[in-house]
């Protein structure tokens, strides 16, 4: 009886460890794919939490590892505002007039920077944790990536990927606070593995 009682916890532990190992391998595969990706086009809904204030945007992002262009679709008042992101600096332009980019808490993070910085984090960030997790009825691979900001601060990116490795949603955490929540509506990838181009509709509005 004692051997039986000891065997059950050991079996559970082995199953948990094997599940963690499988999840880590899956995350490494996903990260390698994003390192190989030469570009992407994303439509995403970004929710920004600034203390008690919440702002929502629908953005279009034309991403490459070296430089990205982000354009506002919603709210209507800001439609057409575009930003160019080169990975470290953010230039927000509208009718050739330089505007305030809306940087969070003195960091380099901005709503316009959220999507391209998230895609860079998948490829270049340090993997802190990974597991399987359901989002609604969809089984996802969840991974958290750590990135060091320009001021030496730590920024954490949590991503949920579908079975095809495409991002479904994500969160950006700064100083223990979830500042940006991203819901991917459409995502088109370029240079994935064999250099082919594929488009996926993620079922958003």
Would you give an account of this structure?
The chain is an alpha+beta fold and 205 residues long. The protein contains two helices and twelve strands. The chain has a single domain (2-201), classed as Clam (outer membrane lipoprotein receptor (LolB), chain A), CATH 2.50.20. Strands 1, 2, 3, 4, 5, 6, 7, 8, 9, 10, 11 and 12 form a twelve-stranded antiparallel β-sheet that branches. The longest helix has 35 residues, at 2-36. The model is unreliable at 2-20 and 194-200 (pLDDT under 50).
- Summed up, the domain count is 1
Distance between the termini: 57 Å
**What is the C-alpha radius of gyration, as a whole number of Å?**
19 Å
Shape: globular
What is the averaged pLDDT score?
Answer: 79
Approximately what portion of the residues adopt beta-strand conformation? over 45%
Assign the CATH topology: outer membrane lipoprotein receptor (LolB), chain A
Order of helices and strands: HEEEEEEHEEEEEE
What is the CATH level 1 assignment?
Answer: Mainly Beta
Number of helices: 2
Stretches where pLDDT is under 50 for at least 5 consecutive residues are: 2-20, 194-200
Layout of helices and strands:
Blueprint: H1 2-36, E1 39-50, E2 53-63, E3 68-74, E4 82-85, E5 90-94, E6 97-98, H2 111-124, E7 126-135, E8 138-148, E9 154-161, E10 167-174, E11 177-192, E12 196-201
Antiparallel strand pairs: 1-2, 1-11, 2-3, 3-4, 4-5, 5-6, 7-8, 8-9, 9-10, 10-11, 11-12
Helix pairs in contact: 1-2
């Amino acid at each position: 009886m004692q051997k039986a009682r000891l065997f059950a916890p050991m079996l559970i532990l082995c199953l948990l460890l094997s599940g963690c190992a499988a999840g880590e391998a899956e995350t490494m595969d996903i990260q390698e794919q994003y390192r190989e990706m030469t570009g992407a086009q994303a439509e995403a809904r970004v929710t920004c939490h600034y203390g008690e204030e919440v702002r929502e945007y629908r953005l279009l992002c034309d991403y490459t590892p070296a430089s990205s262009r982000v354009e506002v679709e919603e709210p209507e008042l800001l439609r057409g505002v575009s930003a160019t992101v080169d990975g470290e600096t953010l230039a927000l332009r509208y009718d050739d007039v330089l505007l305030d980019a809306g940087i969070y808490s003195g960091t380099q993070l901005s709503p316009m920077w959220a999507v391209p910085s998230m895609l860079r984090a998948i490829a270049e960030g340090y993997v802190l944790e990974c597991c399987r997790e359901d989002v609604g009825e969809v089984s996802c691979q969840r991974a958290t990536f750590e990135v060091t900001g320009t001021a030496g601060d730590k920024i954490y990116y949590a991503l949920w990927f579908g079975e095809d490795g495409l991002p479904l949603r994500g969160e950006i955490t700064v100083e223990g606070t979830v500042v940006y929540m991203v819901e991917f509506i459409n995502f088109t990838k370029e240079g994935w593995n064999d250099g082919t181009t594929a488009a996926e509709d993620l079922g958003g509005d």
